[in-house]
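Lab channel / #folding
Pinned by the channel admin:
"Please post every new chain as: sequence first, then the structure tokens as a reply. Keep commentary short and put observations after the output so the thread stays searchable."

First post following the new format, from NK:
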Amino acid sequence: MAREVSKAPSSATRPPTTRRRRRPARALSTTGQLSPSPVPQQREAPEAETISTRPRLNWVLAPDATGRMRPEARWR
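Reply from TO:
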């Protein structure tokens, strides 16, 4: 037996949604070029430190008791 299937309502009978507003792509392209974005200002160069006042943590590979190379943290 064949059952009748109700068709989905056409978009013309559906009420417009209020959540989303769509702008047509054609309207965006006809406005011409968009205004250029502002260029970020370059930061001033930080003062170069030749000798660091704080110790740095470096990771090195060092052999352990079994001879395997293991990562080890060292302060410099």
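NK: The CA atoms of residues 54 and 65 lie 31 Å apart.
TO: also worth noting, The helical segments are 25-30.
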